Amino acid sequence: INVANFRFSELSAEEINSPMKKLAFRNADLTDESFNELLKLLRYAPELLQAEFDDCALDGVGDFQPSESDIVRELGKVETLIIRRLHIPRFYSFNDLRSVYSLLEKVKRITVENSKVFLVPCEFSQRLRSLEFLDLSENLMVEEYLRNSACEGAWPSLQTLILSQNYLKSIERTGEILLTLKNLTGLDISRNSFRPMPDTCRWPPKMRFLNLSSTGIWAVKTCIPQTLEVLDVSNNNLDSFSLFLPRLRELYLSRNKLKTLPDGSLFPVLLVMKIRENALSTFSKDQLGSFPKLETLEAGDNHFICSCELLSFTLGQPALSQVLPDWPDSYLCDSPPRLRGQRVQEARPSVL
């Protein structure tokens, strides 16, 4: 739909009282002027909670100036704003959005994905006092500008920050920059290309969830915060994992190069571990027994050697399916050659 020339027809507020909860624009063409007009819809949709713009184009420079006689000061009850793949032809002439600062002060969740965002001005971040969730995936953020965006007093209520697939390079600098976010519990910095991890890093004090998947890291060091309850380092180049994480409940290690299960004594409260598509050849009763509280282990699609030891263990554990949700279909023999491709559960080697 082309709403570039949209003009709102005035109605008295008593005439329309829409129960609409969500308003979404897809493949819409907007201008600065038509955006100002769309804001006038808010007074007729008092129950609106979510606004979404997908694959839209904005032919303008962000000069959102509702007329003073009809100015909209806030977004009513709107708590969630989602913008995906917004195309702005005059991107490098775009304003700093100062005119919409007041509009977004009560919004709790904002997603601006794949829209060439490289900076959230410090003053804007400080005005987003109610913001709890911010997703800036697939944008142009680098550490230098992130420091300005996460300045002192920025996003004071923020709990979850997603910076997946940006241009971050240093795990150490990223953690240090985000120290201003005192309430941050979840950080997703996956799909960035990080340099080698240092031994020590500083992180926000309440961090519980960290996603470092698909970042090209070769080793996990004590830079990782010990406050974590969930850690995702899947799809990297790890060949070992020996880090003590006393509060960790979930560990995601799939698509790495690990040859053995990590030592369970490093994770005294671990409940879930996923280690699919690594280089595991076997696991034993002792290895599984080293995890005192493990309830779920996904270890399928590895290169299992169907030795007498492994087969006697699996045959002697009829309750394996309770711990291994992907058992038995994802557990195939890689060797010896005669058993290759058979399910471990059904493999029967010769007496020799």
TrEMBL record:
Residues 302-349 form the LRRCT domain. GO terms for cellular component: plasma membrane; receptor complex. It is a single-pass membrane protein. The keyword Ribonucleoprotein does not apply. InterPro entries: Cys-rich_flank_reg_C, Leu-rich_rpt, Leu-rich_rpt_typical-subtyp, LRR_dom_sf. It holds the Pfam family LRR_8. One of its GO terms (molecular function) is triacyl lipopeptide binding. It is found in: Membrane. Keywords: Glycoprotein, Immunity, Inflammatory response, Innate immunity, Leucine-rich repeat, Membrane, NAD, Receptor, Repeat, Signal, Transmembrane, Transmembrane helix. GO terms for biological process: inflammatory response; innate immune response; toll-like receptor signaling pathway. It comes from the Eukaryota. Belongs to the Toll-like receptor family. This is Toll-like receptor 2. The gene is TLR2.
